[in-house]
Amino acid sequence: MAEDSDLEKTESASSRRLEQAREEGQVPQSRELATFISLMVGVVGLYVLGRWSGHRMMEIVRSGLNFERRLAFEPGGMGQVMSSLATDALFTVAPLLAASVIAALATPFLMGGWVFSASVLRFDLSRLNPMQGLGRMFSTHGLVELVKASLKAVLVASVGVWVVWRERDHLFALMLQPLETSMDDFAALVLLSALLIVSSLALIAAIDVPFQLWEYHRRLRMTKEEVRQEMKEQEGDPQIKARIRAAQREMSRRRMMTQVPTADVVVTNPTHYAVALKYDPDKAGAPIVVAKGMNLIALNIRELARENSVPILEAPPLARALYANCELEQPIPTALYTVVAEVMAWVFQLNHWMAEGGLPPEQPTGLAVPEGMDPAAGEATT
């Protein structure tokens, strides 16, 4: 059951999945919205520029039907006339064409923006498979497209019939009007009909846009296994990361162990903690922790210290305080200067005794650390 649930696409698409889909040319699109905006811009353009464009086109036609007789006998004369008329006609319809092109280019920004993807142009033999084509025809998406087409046809036809029925008296009256007046009225009637019909398409677009957004995100849903795999790819496999961290810790521990023979003293708990200190006045103003560890690592530090004749001092509170409050390769905290100074003084005396002889120095006892530095003291108080 758990495996089946992992294979169900129940998770929303991640930002990476959406980005990959966009790179492949998959963005939410609504043909109904594009159709409505393009047609509405065209109708509004005709309403604004229709009268001016109509008069301009009539003048162009008149100019084309009236030309001087000599042009018929001049080589290239008719070509110049036709070129001039074509240029005038192009400039006449240019504003309307420009508005339509801008509308067609701007519509994608309302959904998903422009997408340039070469993968869409890739040749794919599966697109020629008739079985897949039939599957798309009888799929949920195909059924929705059929419902939309039917609804659009019924809506457009209903609006068209309603306009004709509403303006029937006006249509019959056009036959009794002068030609120029009737043409103007007829053009206005056609423009009004087109505006009402295109406005009705707004209802289809208002239904289609939310559906296309929902369908787009539904197609890109992910299974739980895909989500986990994506997290692994982005953040790395947890098992691999754990092995890397373990290897790093091992390398750090080995590097730390190589510093123990150079230490001046090892402070122990005596069995649970061990901290190796080194003091070099030329490099630092305070002793530096070169190694520290608990349990087995502490035991290895003590053994290395004995093998290399590094002094070992049993001072449980100080060992715990050093382990808890000091970092490797860093000087000890200021609060521990006084107590560590006693230790370093004993180390210097011990080195002098080993070199010159005489009475051995007594190990410092009762080394007290400042309040709050020893974690075990806090636990005992609690």
Q: Can you walk through the features of this model?
A:
With 382 residues, this protein is an alpha+beta fold. It is 64% helix and 7% strand. A four-stranded mixed β-sheet has the order 5-4-3-6, with helices on both faces. A two-stranded antiparallel sheet has the order 1-2. Helix 3 (31-65) runs antiparallel to helix 4, helix 3 runs antiparallel to helix 8 (179-219) and helix 6 (140-166) runs antiparallel to helix 8. The protein is rod-shaped, with a radius of gyration of 45 Å. The model has no long low-confidence stretch (mean pLDDT 78).
The portion of residues assigned to helices is: 55-70%
Main sheet properties: 4 strands, mixed
Which parts are unreliable, with pLDDT below 50 for 5 consecutive residues or more? Answer: none
Cα-based radius of gyration, to the nearest Å: 45 Å
Task: Classify the secondary structure makeup into a structural class.
Answer: alpha+beta
- Mean of the pLDDT scores? 78
Beta-strand segment tally: 6
Instruction: Compute the number of helices.
Output: 14
